[in-house]
Structures are given as structure tokens and as C-alpha cells.
Amino acid sequence: MTTPLVTSAWLNTNFDNPSLIILDASLKDNQSSLETNLGNLQIKKARFFDIKQTFSDTNTVLPNTLASPEKFEIEAQKLGINKDSTIVIYDHLGIYSSPRAWWMFKSMGHENVAVLDGGLPDWIKEGFSVEEKKSNPIYAKGNFEAQFISTSVKDKEQILQNIQTEVALLIDARGEKRFHGIGDEPRLGLRSGHIPGSINIPYTQLLQDGKFLSKEALLKLLPLSDKPLFFTCGSGVTACIDLLAYELISKNPKSIYDGSWTEWGQLENLPIEK
User: Fold this and answer.
1) 28 exposed, middle or buried (CB, 10 Å; 0-12, 13-18, 19+)?
2) Which of 163, 152, 148 is closest to 264 using CA atoms?
3) Any idea what DSSP says for residue 38?
4) SS3 of 255, please?
5) How many CB atoms lie within 10 A of CB 52?
6) Which of 129, 133, 150, 160 could form a disulfide with 44 if both were Cys (CB 3.0 to 4.6 A apart)?
7) Cβ(46)–Cβ(23) under 8 Å?
8) What is the DSSP string of 138-183?
9) What is residue 38's predicted lDDT score, i.e. its pLDDT?
10) What is the pLDDT of residues 21-60, one digit of tens each?
11) How far apart are CA 22 and CA 43, in angstroms?
12) DSSP class of residue 8?
């Protein structure tokens, strides 16, 4: 893919491409309290990409952290995904969890992947085919291979070190009130505030009507840097929205702090600012 974003019109035009795999990466629930009435619908021929239960590490108390390359490879093969598959990912909120799934594939070395800008709402608005979701479909096993790119993920030790070195710019995608520690965190037991030295770019500022702002608007809105970019949020999902926005306008190396505030906010020995 030459771009990380494709339009509904592009997907419709390429719908019959035999190498095309359409993935529904919608989350049943979300911490942003966003709702949809499209939960039982999917783009025709879409396959469900279960971020939480299948493609995340369920052996940790942290939500949504990336599964091992070995597990990711096995589960992607079960979805019928091949090494040469063209993957388009969407979610039913427009843009929410689909950038997370996109980043997961990128971190596993699969380059031929894009997000459907506007997601399912835009697809329906354009009048293209949908169907009811199907229970437990079985697909011919694919030959997908995970080639994990370790630099795509950062852990708390690397984030802590960066506070001192300032080698990378750390960007927090949470809302302004959460960033400044105003009010309680939506997850129980977490301190409020932000990682020292981080800057706040709420993911909601990068979207309009469920789509990313234009590249021109993003260039005006987003601060540019010659440093590598680290992204964080509540649990690693909306951080990927910010990362994808930067992918549209810059070539900086980009990484996700996968533990994000769910990890940082519960550890009393880690510094915070408000």
C-alpha cells in the first residue's frame, strides 16, 4: 500500500481483488464511551479481528498489549491471511480501534495494510454492501508470517529513560482533562496526570466526522520534530490514532508505549506531572 489510509470508493473499486482481506477491528466496548447502532453489521466478506481476546496478550493484567509474534502469526493464519494479502481494516465508529490493528500488522512486518478512512459509517453512507455478522466462520489457513519489529514497541523502562535523555518526543493521545489530572481516571486504581515531558494531542482533535483531517490540516495542527516519536494513551488504542496521523505527514521513527497510562498510572514509583 502506498498510503496507510484508503477511501470507501477505493475499497469498493478493489473489492474483488483476490488478495484482498477486509478486517473488522471493532471493539465491543471502549473507554471513550462512544456508541454505535451498527454493532451487528459488517462490510460484506469482512473477517473479525478480535483485538482484545485473540490478538492481545491475555496473560497480563494490562489491556490490549500486543500478543507474541508466534501467537499473532497463528491467529492471522486462522483468519486466512497470507504473506501477500492486501489488508484493509475498519471499525464501526469511523476511526477508533482500526489504527490499532493497522499498527499491530505493521509491527509484525506486514507492509501491505491500510485503514478504511471513515470506517463502517462512511461505507454505509456511500451506499456500499453490508451484511449481518456471522458466527464462528472458518477460513482456509493462510501462510502469514510475523516478522516482529521490536522498535515499534516501547516499555516503561524505555519511557522512564527518555524522561532524562529526551531522545524522543512523547505524545499523549488522551483528553486534555485526563492529561492534566483533572478528575478521576476511567479505570479504577490509577493515579491521574501524565508522564513528565510528554505533550498532549487528544486524538479527537485529529478527526472530523469519523475521518482523519486532511494532510494540510494535520500539518498545521501537529508539532513537527526531528526526533523519534513515542505515543501513549490509556491502554495503547487511541495512541495509534495519533501515530497514524503522524504517519500521514512525517517519516520519523514511531513507537507505541504499549502499557500506556494503565501501567504507568498504577505504579507508585514512576513519576507523574499534572
Assistant:
1) exposed
2) 163
3) -
4) strand
5) 15
6) 129
7) yes
8) ------------GGGEE-HHHHHHHHHH--SEEEE-S-HHHHTT-S
9) 80
10) 999 999 987 665 566 778 689 999 999 999 999 999 988 8
11) 8
12) H
Per the rule left: phi > 0, alpha: psi between -120 and 50, beta: everything else, 109 is left
Say how many C-beta atoms besides its own lie within 10 A of residue 221's C-beta. 13
What the block records as the C-alpha cell of 256 is 507505541
Give residue 136's pLDDT. Answer: 86
> Residues in the chain, how many?
274
What is the predicted pLDDT for the residue at 30? 64
pLDDT in tens, 89-141: 999 999 999 999 999 999 999 999 999 999 999 999 999 999 999 888 999 99
Which residues are marked as active site? 233
For the record, the C-alpha cell of 214 comes out as 486532511
**C-alpha cell belonging to residue 271:** 513519576
Helical pair 98-107 and 239-247, crossing angle rounded to 10 deg: 70
